[in-house]
Amino acid sequence: MKFLDEAKVFIRSGDGGNGCVAFRREKFIEFGGPSGGDGGKGGDVIALAVEGLNTLIDYRYQQHFKAKAGRAGMGKDRHGASADDIVLKVPAGTQIYEEDGETLLADLTTAGESVALARGGNGGFGNARFKSSTNRTPRNANPGQPGEERVIRLRLKLIADAGIIGLPNAGKSTFLAAVSAAKPKIADYPFTTLNPQLGVASIDGREFVLADIPGLIEGAHLGAGLGDRFLGHVERCRVLLHLVDGTAADAGVAYKTVRAELKAYDHGLAGKPEIVALNKADAMSAEEIKRQVARLKRAAKKAPLVVSAATLAGVPEVLRALTAVIDQARQTSDPLPDTLAPAWQP
Ligand SMILES: Nc1nc2c(ncn2[C@@H]2O[C@H](COP(=O)(O)OP(=O)(O)OP(=O)(O)O)[C@@H](O)[C@H]2O)c(=O)[nH]1
Ligand SMILES: [Mg+2]
Predict the structure, then answer these.
(1) Fewest beta carbons less than 10 Å away: which of 24, 65, 136, 217?
(2) CA 199 / ligand 1 centre spacing (Å)
(3) What's the rounded Cα separation, in Å, for the pair 267 and 22?
């Protein structure tokens, strides 16, 4: 399945049906009175988070969603049918913004959550509603109310417990492949990973979701490489796994480059708990490992874990360190301490 994490969609809810003007006409019944029915309600446009989706790719093929109008009322006191709602299915983790892309309308974080984005117009009253003791032949009915239309932007921010960050070629995808059933593309050149990948890792009988994102390079926040927009997918993680390639010239410099990009991106990423691991230990001599660990320790101000995603040495320790932070975060904070606008009501 292709991956798409941003989409712009035009939505329109249905107009209400018009009320009807009619009078009862029947043999032997004089002055039958008004009998115009009400119009039906137009369809709403609703967004619903569903399970089993992790991309917005459907919205590349269809960008216009219009709900049908309610049916008009008819004589003999028949009300018009209301139109069906249109449901936009989105993956959990989808944020819905106004057209400006900045005003948050809704954040659907769990499957089953839904929000009405455009309400269908109410149907108009038929003339039967207007009868009264002083007006026994009302000849007026209300028109249906118009629907609403708007442009919205969908932005998917994957929901994972831990996110793997690092320079290209650090071995992020190799790590994800090693600890989960995910099959990300792995290769010996930068920017192998073009789209975020999710996998479920397990350790000591516990499971958590791990996200692998494209590598960051210096200047990513200015658009260098693949840019930093994929960092949105680790925004909601409880912990970051920062992988550093031990075979690089200087692990400390590599570490600092990525940290600088996290800071420039902001959104609270720089303050997230981070587990630092020196990868590719299998390809280094003990001497080299020692040197790189020292550099990394100086840069990160804490001792890194040493790991090899290729041989799995040290991998359980990394997973345990991640689960420890995840558990702690689950206990102390609510699931998504995001800066959310108050729930939007149409
Ligand atoms: N020797 C050794 N090689 C590794 C290890 N981990 C990854 N590699 C190799 O490093 C290269 C890059 O690995 P990837 O997993 O694609 O790196 P990445 O961080 O996902 O890179 P991007 O997707 O480009 O950001 C591949 O050739 C891997 O086989 C390791 O622990 N030891
Ligand atoms: Mg990769």
Answers:
(1) 136
(2) 17
(3) 61
Global pTM? Answer: 0.78
Q: Are 92 and 108 spatial neighbours (Cβ–Cβ below 8 Å)?
A: yes
Rounded to whole angstroms, how far apart are CA atoms 126 and 139?
Answer: 9
Instruction: Kindly state if the Cβ of 168 falls inside 6 Å of ligand 1.
Output: yes
Residue with the nearest Cα to atom 7 of ligand 1? Answer: 171
pLDDT tens digit sequence for 16-26: 999 999 999 99
Report CA(232)–ligand 1 centroid distance (Å).
22
Q: Which residues pair with 241 in a beta bridge?
A: 164, 275
Which residues have CB atoms below 5 A from the ion given as ligand 2?
Answer: 172-173, 192-193
Q: Residue 93: CB partners within 8 Å, gap ≥ 6?
A: 49, 108, 109, 156, 157, 158, 159, 236
Which atom in ligand 1 lies closest to the alpha carbon of residue 190?
24
